[in-house]
Amino acid sequence: MAVSLDDDVPLILTLDEGGSAPLAPSNGLGPDDLPSRTASQERRKCRGEGQPSSSWRRQQRASSLTAPWRGHPVSSSWALVVCLDLAVDGGKYTVHDSQAPSLSLEGENSPSSPTGHDWEMNYQEAAIYLQEGENNDKFFTHPKNAKALAAYLFAHNHLFYLMELSAALLLLLLSLCEAPAVPALRLGIYVHATLELFALVVVVFELCMKLRWLGLHTFIRHRRTMVKTSVLVVQFVEAIVVLVRQTSHMRVTRALRCIFLVDCRYCGGVRRNLRQMFQSLPPFMDILLLLLFFMIIFAILGFYLFSPNPSDPYFSTLENSIISLFVLLTTANFPDVMMPSYSRNPWSCVFFIVYLSIELYFIMNLLLAVVFDTFNDIEKRKFKSLLLHKRTAIQHAYRLLVSQRRPAGISYRQFEGLMRFYKPRMSAGERYLTFKALNQSNTPLLSLKDFHDIYEVAALKWKAKRNREHWFDELPRTAFLIFKGINILVKSKAFQYFMYLVVAVNGVWILVETFMLKGGNFVSRHVPWSHLVFLTIYAVELFLKVAGLGPIEYLSSGWNLFDFSVTAFAFLGLLALAFNMEPFYFIVVLRPLQLLRLFKLKKRYRNVLDTMFELLPRMASLGLTLLIFYYSFAIVGMEFFYGILYPNCCNTSTVADAYRWLNHSVGNRTVVEEGYYYLNNFDNILNSFVTLFELTVVNNWYIIMEGVTSQTSHWSRLYFMTFYIVTMVVMTIIVAFILEAFVFRMNYSRKNQDSEVDDGITLEKELSKDELVAVLKLYREAGGANSDIAQLLKILSQLERYEQNTLVFLGRRSRTKSDLSLKMYQEEIQEWYEEHARKQEERQLSSCVVPATQQPPGSRQRSQTIT
């Protein structure tokens, strides 16, 4: 494939609303011509992103302007508006002469002075579009002028993200030091209030950057930002009040601090989970209302049936009936709630059997089914939305990279300029390999159809492929034959099944050995011979695999890494036993992890494990989402229930035994009776988290609720019942997510039985010496970075050292669920693309056609097709 070294003028030039360039001058790849027209505002109109601002129009009506980056006078004129027909093949682009204003150099339509500045602006804006598509950022937040761009770049770097995250975590961690504080972490009011104000000032700075970037109108339209701003104002006022009064007051609003963490860039998974929860609420609420309706009906019926029994405290009032049946829904008080009535009339069990059958076994499972169906639909719609959003971002970026001379595609020069901003850590060789991997048509220009794969191809990590099949190919013949035999051995089925048999025997041995141990100090002071035998076998296996496969190939497999880690831990455990290192005895317990290797034998087990590993990142975000709810409820619990649960606190309640603490003498012995439930309190944030986790598990959760209710009021039950409903929503979403992921993987495995999911995405590309020389020449002429030139020279020297004309590179990346979805929905995706193209075409036709009454004097309509 030839490398196009010449350059051209951008078809679209991006300017700010004042007609000035938003980027500072920088070294381009070569001399470019100043474009004859700008389409920044027209492009926004064609995308349906609003009309040019009034200030922009006023500046366009000026008789002459000065371009600050070149000092050329620019006159106002009515020029062509480029409305690109973004077809899949990217072949033709229609240019309509509408009445939108644009800047031209000295009233001419053709440029006369060269500059690389114009392309640099387009490169950066195109990279921003790709980032917005990848991060699912809305296009109305796109920076519109130089000030907005500076703020955007400042707000989109990892140092800013870390500052944002640090401020949010500091605000959350202050709950450890504020009253009621953890005893060991208590700080003075002046100290923690000052720290809070410092963190809030950092948040103010973040929002100022966001306001400068978005503008006031867009800032107000962004709902999450407005919620964050409102919470910030409340927190600021409260912190100042605490600092002035030098005493803490009831601050329930501290529960809203988690919004600062949710809004962090690194918590995008949490925001996605919360969004899906809110989207799943309508069908969930419908089934929940049905559940509560039946609960109230049964509560009324139970009150009339069982309230005449004076020994039945569960149905003495209608309130007690509702509470008892609500707790019964969690089975925490069953069969206790049934026994008083059952003792008088055995037929009363029918009431409880029917209630549990309807509520617990039917409606609760129906709730899961409805949420799962909704969640599955949301996942598919989310994938479609993100896919089309990325496609639109790619089209926006593409329009900024095509030139006036070659509007049919992107040359390598423009692609390289884009990648310098989009993937700044990518080397020069990797940029060219990415361009070549995208260019399926094998032409000097990259078409829009090829450019649509930019996200998938840009994520590949490129490495030179070894010319030899094995690492030992260049060794002497004797050594080669030895290592070749080892390679054949470790790849044979017999060797693999032998190791599975060893692992199974080891597992049975560990089980029998553990069963025969007694309580107490179960760690032996001497090294058992079984440890030595099995560890020796595993060490020999590890040595043979490393010798036969080579270190690189061995460590490239996830299962081999797992085997290596478990064997290393087993060896450390052996050292701990041999040298009596008690702190490291826990490593011995990790031996049974070898048994996980047996799951590779059956395909269904492999699918389960693969699904589990795929779910780990998402499960981490779901766990963080649950912790955020925990934090909010913990703050509320501390504010209302601090210090009310203690030993013997609930002697007048029905759960007095659970909180009783007695210390009395029986003969010559002192007997201590403890209920221990007084430890489940809200005296600080850590105790509150433990208590809330016990409420989540729901076993005997009503004991904590009744203990708090006996010390406060009946309204306290609303806190616990609300927490149960919220956690039920979160847990149902988690279960639905696990089911959706597993079902999706099963369906994918059935549909693609011949494909391997575990190997990731791999792509091979051949790079010739002539191509490298051409690219190197391009970088030298353009004054490219020394590191890029050095990297290209290194590849050339490698070719010369091995006397080769070509070098094969292997691009590899892990397979994501998005890749699996692309294959699962490939038939529907084409329909989505066609529908999306039709909507774009309709939007362009409606936005690009300007009524004749709006035409300025002397203007005329014309259309031209650039091919």
Automatic annotation (TrEMBL):
Record domain Ion transport: where: 166-382, 493-743
Intracellular or extracellular location(s): Early endosome membrane; Lysosome membrane; Recycling endosome membrane
Transmembrane residue ranges: 159-181, 187-205, 226-244, 287-306, 313-332, 352-375, 497-517, 529-547, 559-578, 622-645, 718-743
Catalytic function, reaction form: Ca(2+)(in) = Ca(2+)(out); Na(+)(in) = Na(+)(out)
Highest taxon above the source species: Eukaryota
Keywords: Calcium, Calcium channel, Calcium transport, Coiled coil, Endosome, Ion channel, Ion transport, Lysosome, Membrane, Repeat, Transmembrane, Transmembrane helix, Transport, Voltage-gated channel
Membrane topology qualifier: Multi-pass membrane protein
BP GO terms, sorted: endocytosis involved in viral entry into host cell
Any one cellular-component term (Gene Ontology): early endosome membrane
Molecular function terms from GO: calcium channel activity; identical protein binding; intracellularly phosphatidylinositol-3,5-bisphosphate-gated monatomic cation channel activity; ligand-gated sodium channel activity; voltage-gated channel activity; voltage-gated sodium channel activity
Residue span of region Disordered: 16-69, 843-867
Keyword Transmembrane helix carried by entry: yes
Keyword Membrane in annotation: yes
Compositionally biased intervals (Low complexity): 51-64
Matches recorded under InterPro entries: Ion_trans_dom, TPC1_animal, Volt_channel_dom_sf
Ranges of compositional bias, category Polar residues: 852-867
Pfam family, one: Ion_trans
Family under the similarity heading: Belongs to the calcium channel alpha-1 subunit (TC 1.A.1.11) family. Two pore calcium channel subfamily.
Entry function: Intracellular channel initially characterized as a non-selective Ca(2+)-permeable channel activated by NAADP (nicotinic acid adenine dinucleotide phosphate), it is also a voltage-gated highly-selective Na(+) channel activated directly by PI(3,5)P2 (phosphatidylinositol 3,5-bisphosphate) that senses pH changes and confers electrical excitability to organelles. Localizes to the early and recycling endosomes membranes where it plays a role in the uptake and processing of proteins and regulates organellar membrane excitability, membrane trafficking and pH homeostasis.
Subunit structure: Dimer. Interacts with MTOR; the interaction is required for TPCN1 ATP sensitivity. Interacts with STX7, STX8 and STX12. Interacts with JPT2. Found in a complex with LSM12, TPCN1 and TPCN2.
Name under which the protein is recorded: Voltage-dependent calcium channel protein TPC1
Record lineage: Eukaryota, Metazoa, Chordata, Craniata, Vertebrata
Gene: TPCN1
